[in-house]
Amino acid sequence: MKYSQLKERQDHFFTICRQHGLKITPQRTAIYQAVITSPNHPAADDIFRIVKREFPRISFDTVNRTLLTFNQIGLLTVAESYRGARRFDPNVEDHHHLHCLKCGKILDFTCDAFDHLTVPEQLNNQFARVLSSRVVFNGICQDCSDRK
Q: 14: helix, coil or strand?
């Protein structure tokens, strides 16, 4: 991630925290930076291991609760995960996922057609309004396929 992008994301972090009355602490900042600079969709344990280097007394529970708070205020989302721990996604823009069922890798992709899906008629009466949708493909990634 370029410095300008990192600075923009950090400014957004400060703004959203202030809007929600969330105190901006060095630990929260470190947790957010660890998520947005991660090359994948990290689990809370991944973020805990990174942040613990800088803040040795931080607990896993603090990291996990902070990540869930960040999800609630829109700083990140929880990625659908079919293996193990909950995974976090710093990309809050509309996008979709490819999941590898072997290694658990989650890849982002965009597709205009999937962004404009309509709710099936039989579900229209179930919800007053659909706020978002995400398409998830499950399969085997190229790396896992090449290992055979």
A: helix
